[in-house]
Amino acid sequence: MMSKKEMRFGTTAIHGGLKPDASTGAVMTPIYQTSTYAQHEVGKHKGYEYSRTLNPTRDALEKNIAAIEGVKYGACFGSGLAAIDAVLKMLNPGDEVIATRDLYGGTHRIFNSVFKKYGIEFHFTAMDDLQAVEELINKNTKLIWMETPTNPMTNLVDIEAVCALAQKHNIISAVDNTFATPYLQQPAALGADIIMHSATKYLGGHSDVVMGALAVNDKKTAEEIYRIQNSTGAIPGPMDCFLVLRGIKTLHVRMKQHCENARAVAEFLDGHSRVAAVHWPGLKNHPGHELAKKQMRDFGGMLSFSLQTDTQEAAHQLVKNTRVFTLAESLGGVESLIGHPVCMTHASVPQKEREASGICDSLIRLSVGIEDSADLVEDLEQALEKR
């Protein structure tokens, strides 16, 4: 097999970190539905012992995720939020975190409603202003949390610039890479210490699994993540690991189609009279367009748009009218989904903070799937025409 350095992304997605099963020769990683393992000697066993600590199917997936992110270590968790939870458990009371203002509602919720009461302070800011970020840094700042493109406004963060700032102040940098996936961007190559994924989304890709993942290069950081993973037990089961392993094998193929379809949808919406604004990094009028060209391979399958009639009622009527787009939570599956962030993914974010991030009442988020793009455009066209 080719070495990791020689393999391009598509090959790495299929083969990276993986090898045929040693006991059977199975090409596809088996589902080891096993809780415990026979040990050769008391206290001297070097292999698998207990599946909370390590399971062969999960082990294979963790190696594969590390490979596609271009790092040495991967760790999988029961959900994306469980992965974020593990990162925050690396901190101590009194520590401070600087985070992207416009970010997933569940991340905002776990920061403010769970960890804040344990003495960790969070500062939210727009990270396009590096000076504003640096002004928030003090001796207690231990983590800078980035999400790029952001959810749901698709704002861009200059990963390389913010990571350089973090390194200057000896601060851990973390990037939520869920929207972009390792196919579109690899934050570690831009200086990030920790990469987080909701593997529920594009890595799994078929809306049939819930999982989170972390990827890191530093051995000491990895050891701490594994300690937390084992100690708190928020692990995924082997069947879920098998499903995400299978999903990753087609990640590059799917992402190409997601991006192509998103372009068709974004360009249609951008010219529609009922649409006030379209947020997709591939549009030249997007404020992060040039940065996206610099740090991403393509512009992604996620976009959002607002209506000229900026009311929740107008948004609700539109999402009710679609036939191909399904009204549902989540994103990143092969099917196209439509949602209303104010009432769904970002309902837990206070209104004032939502509005500061640009999340208006009529904002609609699309996860553009891999159906025929003409059907997606026609579906939105008929939904916009209905009153």
Write up what this structure looks like:
The protein is of the alpha/beta class and 387 residues long. The mean pLDDT is 96. It is 37% helix and 15% strand.
Summarize the topology.
Layout: H1 9-15, H2 56-69, E1 73-77, H3 80-88, E2 96-100, H4 105-115, E3 121-125, H5 130-135, E4 141-147, H6 159-168, E5 172-176, H7 181-184, E6 194-198, E7 212-216, H8 219-232, H9 238-248, H10 251-270, E8 275-279, H11 289-295, E9 302-307, H12 312-321, E10 326-327, E11 337-339, H13 351-356, E12 364-367, H14 373-385
Parallel strand pairs: 2-3, 2-4, 4-5, 5-6, 10-11
Antiparallel strand pairs: 1-7, 6-7, 8-9, 9-12, 11-12
Helix pairs in contact: 1-2, 2-9, 3-4, 10-14
Briefly characterize the structure.
The protein is an alpha/beta fold. The protein is 37% helix and 15% strand. Helix 1 packs antiparallel against helix 2 and helix 10 runs parallel beside helix 14.
Oligomer: single chain
Number of helices: 14
Radius of gyration in whole Å, from Cα?
A: 21 Å
How many β strands by DSSP? 12
User: Roughly what fraction of the amino acids lie in strands?
Assistant: 5-15%
What CATH architecture label of the largest domain applies? Answer: 3-Layer(aba) Sandwich
- Overall shape: it is globular
Q: Per CATH, what is the topology of the largest domain?
A: Aspartate Aminotransferase, domain 2
Assign the CATH superfamily of the largest domain.
Type I PLP-dependent aspartate aminotransferase-like (Major domain)
Fraction of residues in helix? 25-40%
